[in-house]
Structures are given as C-alpha cells and as structure tokens.
Amino acid sequence: MKVAVLGAGPAGLYFAISMKRRNPAHEITVFERNKADDTFGWGVVLSAETLDNLAANDAVSAAWIREYFAHWDDIAVYHKGVRTVSTGHGFCGIGRKRLLLLLQRRARDLGVELIFETEIGDPKSYMAQYDLVIGADGLNSRSRAAFAEVFKSDIDVRKCKFVWLGTRQKFDDAFTFIFEKTEHGWVWAHAYQFEPETATFIVECSEATWAAWGFGDMTRQQSIAACERIFASYLGGHALMSNASHLRGSAWINFPRVLCARWSHKNLALMGDAAASAHFSIGSGTKLALESAVALADYLHSQPTLEEAFEKYESARRTEVLRLQSAARNSLEWFEEVERYLDLDPVQFNYALLTRSQRISHENLRLRDPEWLANAEAWFQRRAGNTDNVRRAPMFAPFQLRELKFRNRVVVSPMAQYKAIDGCPTDWHFAHYAERAKGGAGLVHIEMTCISPEGRITPGCTGFYAPEHEVAWKRLVDFVHRETEAKICAQIGHSGPKGSTQLGWQQSDAPLPNGNWPVMAASAIPWSPGNQVPKAMDRADMDRVRDQFASSAAMAARCGFDMLEIHAAHGYLLSSFVTPLTNRRTDQYGGALENRLRFPLEVFHAVRTVWPAEKPISMRISANDWVGDEGVTPHEAVEIARLLQAAGVDICDVSAGQTSIAARPVYGRMFQTPFSDRIRNETGMATMAVGNIYEPDHVNSILLAGRADLVCLARPHLTDPYWTLHAAVALGDRDVSWPDPYLPGRDQLYRLAERTSTMGLKV
Ligand SMILES: Cc1cc2nc3c(=O)[nH]c(=O)nc-3n(C[C@H](O)[C@H](O)[C@H](O)COP(=O)(O)OP(=O)(O)OC[C@H]3O[C@@H](n4cnc5c(N)ncnc54)[C@H](O)[C@@H]3O)c2cc1C
Ligand SMILES: Cc1cc2nc3c(=O)[nH]c(=O)nc-3n(C[C@H](O)[C@H](O)[C@H](O)COP(=O)(O)O)c2cc1C
C-alpha cells in the first residue's frame, strides 16, 4: 500500500512505524513542515499502561522510550503556602523532542521516508496519488479543514490562557501544582520533570488575570520574565524557557477542544489532535495519538477493505476517545473554575484537585495513598465536630443545621408513593418510611405532601390538610423518633400546572381519564399541549396558597417532623414562578429573578413564622432547566441560592430539570452535583446534592471535595432501605448502629464481609 502521512508528530510517526511493523512492503512517506529536530513543547506524559500497549505493538521503540523515561509517583500541591503530597499516582515523562527523535529513527530503520521542511498543500492532491492518506497534522489540521463539511468538527476554545515553558529547576520528586495569588489574580503552574536536567512548567490563568497582567501585549521574553517573578520562590533562581520559537506572539494560547463527527473520508483518515484533542491537565493527548495509530494500523490489516477498516477505527476508538475527553473536560473545567475553590482548606482543595476528572474516586485514592486519605478523612471528621472516631468515611460525619443534629450525611430523597387515600397516608407509607428510617440514613424525607386537595399531583398523593392526615403522620414520626436515630423531614408542595395527573406508574404527568380538578400556576401556560391550561394566579389565590403552606407547616410541626422542605422545583407551583419558561407575568411576580422569587419567598416567610425556630427549613430548586439561556441556568441558580440564603433558608436541596418538556438534560453519574458544588462554593450556603448518586464512593467524594453538605439518594433507597447500613459493611465501618432485633443479621454480615475481604474479594 502507498501511504502518505501528513504531519510528523507522535500520531503520524507512530502510525508509519505500526504499518511497517505489520507489513514491510508498504511504501510510506511522512511529510512535515518543521525541521527534524525543530519541535515545540517539553515533556510528554504517558502511563505505565500506555507504555505496555506500545511495547506490544513495537518492542524496539518502546524499549528506547523506556530508557529515557522519568518516573514519579507523587503529586505535590502548593496552596496557601502549604505543600501537600500524596503518592501512588504512577506517571512517566519523556521529552517531546526526544520522543519524536526516537520515533523518527525507528521509522527510518523500518524504511519509512521522512520528508521535512515541506508544507502540506491541499490534501486532495495526496489523496489522488496515494492509496491511503493520514491527516496527522495536529490541532489546526489542514486535512480536517479541507473537508470541513464531512468531518463537521466542533472546536470549543476554552476559557483559560496557558503557555508551555520549561525550566532547569528540579521537580523530580513529584508532579507539582503551584497556585500563586498575584496582584492581578491567581496564576498557577503544572510542573513535571521529563529529563534529568529539564522540567515542563506550564503556566495558566484565567483570561481576566491574563488581561490584567497585560500578557497579550508582552513579547515572549517579557511574559517569561513576569512568570519568573510570579514563581520566583519555587524556581530556585532558575530561568523559565520557551522553545516555541516557530510560534508567533507571546505563545500564550487557549486550549481548543476538538471533536469531529467523522474521522475519515474516501481514502483520508484523521488521527491524533487533528481528530480529537484532550486537555493537557490529564496528560493524554499523546497517549490518544499513539493508541489511535496502533488501532488504525491493526484494522487496516484485519479488515478486508479500507472502508471497513475506517469504520472499525471510528467505532472502536470513539468510545475510548470520548471517555478520555469527558475526563479531560471535567479536569479543564475544574481549572477554569479553580478560583471558586482556592479558599478551601488545603486538605479539601488538594482532594478536589486529585478527584477533579472523576477518574480517581475516593476508594481509588485509598489504594494509591491510604495514609494521605486517612488524614484527609480525619480532617473532615474533626471539622464536622467529631473527635471520637476520626477514622470514618466522610458519609459518617455528623452535621448540624440550627439545633438539628444529623448522625451522618446520607439522605433518603423525597419520593412520591402514590398510595394515599384522599390525601391520607396509609399503612404503605408507615411501613415504607419506617423501613427507611431503620436503614441507617441520617435524614429521611417523606414525599411531596400537598397543602390542599387541589394542590395534589395525583389522586394518590399525600396531604397535610385534614385532621386524619395529622394523626397518620404523627404515628410515623413518633415511631421514627422512638425506634431509630434518623431525623425525618416533611416536604410540602403544591402541584401547580402538573396537578390533576395520573399516578407515577400510569401515564405520568398526563391528565386523569376523568375527575380532573382545575389547576393554577404563575401564568396560564400548560405543562404540555395535552394538559389543562392553568389559571394564572391572582392575589387572592396567592394569599390562599401562602396560608395553606403555613397551615401545612404548622401541622407538620405538630406531628413533630424535625425539618421542613419547601418544594420549589420540578415544574410544580412554586417552580412555575421561579422559571422564566412558565412565568410570563408582567406584575411584580414576573420578569427579573427577584420578582420571580417573590412569591416563593412570601411562602417561605409565612412558613418560617409557624415553624419552630430551632428547626431548619430547606428549599428544593431546579438549578438547571436544561434549555440553555431561555430558562434557569446553573449560573442563575447561584443567584437563586443567594436570595434564599438572604431570606434565611438553611439549606438548598439542589435538584434540576422537570420544568419543561423541551428540556435536554445531560445525564451521567452525579450529573446534578456540579450545580450543588457551584452554589455551595460560590455562596457558602449549605447544600444537598442529588441525582444518579448510587455508590458510597460517590457520596464520600462529593462530601470530601466540598461539593455538598448532605447527599440525597432516591432510587437506590427504593431497592434497598438499608443502603447506609450496607455501605458501612462494604466500607468496613463498624460504628453504625443497627436496630437491636437485627443484631444477629448484622453480625453475620460482618463475618461474611471479613471472610470475603481476607479472600481478596470486594463485598
Ligand atoms: C504549543 C504546544 C506545546 C505542546 N507541548 C506538549 C508537551 O510538552 N507535552 C505534551 O504531552 N503535549 C504537548 N502538546 C500537545 C501535543 O502536541 C498533542 O497532544 C500530541 O502531540 C498530539 O500528536 P499529533 O501527532 O496528533 O499532533 P502534533 O504533535 O501537533 O503533530 C502534528 C505535526 O503536523 C505538522 N503539521 C501541521 N500542519 C502542517 C502543514 N500544513 N504542513 C506540514 N506539516 C504540518 C506539525 O508541524 C506537527 O509536527 C503541545 C501542544 C501545543 C499546541
Ligand atoms: C418514584 C419517585 C418519586 C419521586 N417523588 C419526588 C417527590 O415527591 N419530591 C421530590 O422533590 N422529588 C421526587 N423525586 C425525585 C427524587 O427525589 C430525586 O431527586 C431523583 O429521583 C434523582 O435522584 P436518584 O438518581 O437518586 O433517583 C421522585 C423520584 C422518584 C424515582
């Protein structure tokens, strides 16, 4: 096969090597604009696993690369003058120039023709002359641009500014992050050794800080001199160096995240940064390039046609690339928002940094560095006021709101059961909630319980509006207090435009087949074309509903509930005021956010006056309508939380969505937690995180990274009322309390867990 490779970066060279290894008869020419030894960049990071993959592909070049590898296990973080070190991370670094020279040598030895100092013109001319053309021409790929309409690239130019520099100062004991507060804002560095005498030193900052420093108007040397001053105390008198002499201007760039809908067209395939880029903070750009090169070479030899090989290449590599890009996105977003976290305690800051990409979990950190993690857990426990046994996971730290003390951070999220009769909870509710209260969670929410018959979502919803409701709820609350250590929270709400609909397991949100009751909302906008048009509330409606909220809260107080939550999320009545999608009012209750929150806050104040002063009140919000700027955005959710906090709401339960049928949520593990993180760290308000959180590992990492104060699990508690007690068994925590009659069961579980762990299995 006659092959033209456009670009002699890691992707192009390694592809040429991999092809020749599979069939020496291929005629391969690599075209490159730079000179053979005129390359940019400093150290390249690869994991031990990647190197093993390379060795399986070409043992010779892998052995050469290994010879030059700098290896380190530790990550050091300088923050607020404190150096924190954790270990067990296992990285290798090699100079990019060294790597390319080795790959060039190997390619030549295998008979690849390398042509330097040649500008690639139109890739179409190569496509006409060669059987196969590889577009390995990097981030600003001409091969990609030539077929823009086919590849449909999506290039997201990210917010931070950075510059790749090097230094002779040694960073040979750890991959080092340095955060420095300067007169113009925070500037940070990512530093790692890659050769005995040289370390990479990437300097990064926000666009605002970059502008305030005037880096854009400086020459490269002026920029370097400024960075040397900023990091003088870490450089030990050594200079910072730039080797991007072929780049114009100051060499500061914004990272472009490249995605392409397709990677191939006719006989041309894109590879490496040309096809997909990964942010340098997870050190995977070169890994992606090399592994894609191996994959395509493989498919070209295992598939019968070029077309099928390309198809395989795209389908098999895409998942891996997307997985890495998603981790890279988490990581780069963390750095973009790092100023939100810089006031955290150094222990928590360090933990948040290490877990930023969500590839390293809490238990994974324990495997890497058990001592460091134990110290971080002890710090968390002590800060939570637990001095007795600090060697417990974060989920078992106590928490307090007003006078209410929670024994741990796990919350049973509110979940409608649709089993009430005329609003009255039944034996089902007693059995269901009593079980969850016995299951170990610190707090159990009851479902959205409605303030009036017409405020119910469905005919099966519970209420706080008739004397028999009070009797039934009080029986449950008394049981929970008498027999368990759980606290119990009443969630109160009004269904608004989503009322008079079918039970959850019927046609959810669809009107009843018969017996519908009239509904109301902030504006006369139906939930969907199939739902009733609600009445836009007038002042008399608002007064009545506000008083019904207060009277329900008074009933919940008489029942003895420990905490109250006002439901202002998910498109129900109060939510219909908050989101601009359903609030089109032109009076003082519509328009600006302060206006849209006016009625929900009137309700809060009315409830607060009847709710005992020593007990907290929470408000559940939808922090993202998932419709873009038309609706509530995570940014506006921070402003919502600020207003709630100013009004005296004790904690914000940060949910999202269910406010519009046009919503396009992006699901995933812990997918709503970033909204809680943002609210908590930008406002200082206590938060609960919720949404697809299902493992103890998730709960612990959310808490220790400071992304929420309490963590709600809904569906996991439907299948396992004892989720918290089971989590304790799995984590080896023996300090949770079980109901006395269940102790023999507990002891058996502990024995089984010990036996499994001595056999090296995970429970
Ligand atoms: C300024 C900068 C510095 C970097 N430094 C590092 C670093 O120190 N460590 C690290 O791990 N990663 C670094 N990276 C990231 C790294 O380049 C990529 O993730 C990785 O090298 C991808 O390999 P590639 O072969 O796809 O692309 P590249 O390495 O970018 O290779 C593409 C090659 O194509 C050539 N080329 C492009 N267009 C043409 C044309 N029209 N005609 C002829 N030749 C052309 C380029 O000169 C280049 O040699 C750096 C990136 C940038 C932008
Ligand atoms: C069956 C069911 C009923 C629910 N009812 C309520 C409710 O009454 N009030 C509320 O605020 N959220 C309700 N939710 C939403 C949950 O509290 C939670 O926010 C959501 O399920 C995401 O959490 P999860 O991924 O842990 O399930 C309900 C969820 C389910 C599955």
Number of helices: 27
Anisotropy-based shape:
elongated
- End-to-end separation: 53 Å
What ligand molecules are bound, each kind once? flavin-adenine dinucleotide, flavin mononucleotide
Low-confidence segments: none
Label the structural class: alpha/beta
Number of strands: 29
The portion of residues assigned to helices is 25-40%
Supply database-style keywords.
single chain; 39% helix; binds flavin mononucleotide; 763 residues; eight-stranded parallel β-barrel; binds flavin-adenine dinucleotide; elongated; 20% strand; alpha/beta; 27 helices; eight-stranded mixed sheet
Structural features, described:
With 763 residues, the protein is an alpha/beta fold. Strands 5, 6, 10, 11, 12, 13, 14 and 15 form an eight-stranded mixed sheet that branches. Strand 20, helix 16 (427-438) and strand 21 (443-450) form a beta-alpha-beta unit. The model has no long low-confidence stretch (mean pLDDT 94). Flavin-adenine dinucleotide (FAD) binds next to helix 1, strand 3 and helix 11. Residues 7-12, 31-34, 40-45, 96, 119-120, 136-139, 142, 164, 200, 244, 272-274, 280, 285-286, 289 line the site of flavin-adenine dinucleotide.
Compile the SSE list and pairings.
Layout: E1 2-6, H1 10-22, E2 27-31, E3 43-46, H2 48-57, H3 59-67, E4 70-72, E5 75-79, E6 82-86, E7 91-95, H4 96-109, E8 113-115, H5 123-129, E9 132-135, H6 142-146, H7 148-151, E10 153-167, E11 175-182, E12 185-195, E13 198-205, H8 207-213, H9 220-230, H10 232-235, E14 240-241, E15 253-260, E16 264-265, E17 268-270, H11 285-302, H12 306-336, H13 346-354, H14 362-368, H15 370-383, E18 399-401, E19 404-406, E20 410-412, H16 427-438, E21 443-450, H17 467-483, E22 487-493, E23 520-521, E24 535-536, H18 539-559, E25 563-568, H19 573-578, H20 593-596, H21 598-610, E26 617-622, H22 634-647, E27 651-655, H23 673-683, E28 686-689, H24 696-704, E29 710-713, H25 715-719, H26 723-731, H27 743-758
Parallel strand pairs: 1-2, 1-9, 2-8, 5-11, 9-17, 20-21, 20-29, 21-22, 22-25, 23-24, 25-26, 26-27, 27-28, 28-29
Antiparallel strand pairs: 3-7, 4-7, 5-6, 10-13, 10-14, 10-15, 11-12, 12-13, 16-17, 18-19
Helix pairs in contact: 1-4, 1-11, 2-3, 2-11, 3-4, 11-12, 14-15, 16-17, 17-18, 18-21, 22-23
This protein binds flavin-adenine dinucleotide and flavin mononucleotide.
